[in-house]
Amino acid sequence: PERIRRFDPFSDAIDDWKESPEPTDMVTRAVPVDPSGLDLKRQIRAFEVELIRAALVSAGNNQTDAAELLLMPRRTLVYKISAYGIRDAQVGDPLTIQTGDDGKPMSFKDRIERLELRILKEALNRTAGDRTIASRLMGIQKRTLDTKIGRFGIG
User: Fold this and answer.
1) For residues 120 and 48, what is the distance between their CA atoms, to the nearest angstrom?
2) What is the DSSP letter of 34?
3) Overall average pLDDT of the 11-28 stretch
4) pTM to 2 decimals?
C-alpha cells in the first residue's frame, strides 16, 4: 500500500495507516506534508542554482568572474554547475550583492547558511520546538537537525 504522508480524519487513512510499513508512532504519522516546501535539501539546491545562474548572468557566463562574485573557489563553482546541470545562463536577474552584519559582501556559503537558518527556525516554529517532527518536516535526520541547531546556536 502507498505510504500515508498526511493524516486525514475524513477518509479511511486509519485503515491505510495500519497496513503501512512505516513506524506505528501516531504522532509521526499525523505530521502533514508541508505544501510550501520546508524540504531542506530541495530548498538549498534550488537556492544554490538560483545564485549560480544570477552570478553567471552578471558575469556574462564567465565562471571565474562568477566565482569571484559569489566569493567562492572557482573549482567549487565548476563542480556545482556540472552537478546541477546548469547550462549557459543567458536570461535572468543579475546577482545582487548582499552584505552581512559586518557590512562586507556575503559569500555563497554565508547566503546558504542564512537560508538554512531561516528554514530551521520556521520548522521549529511550526512544530512548537519539537525537533523530531521538525526534522521529518524538513526531510533530514534528527541528529542532523541537532547538529545544525548547535552550529547556529538556536533552540
Assistant:
1) 17
2) -
3) 38
4) 0.71
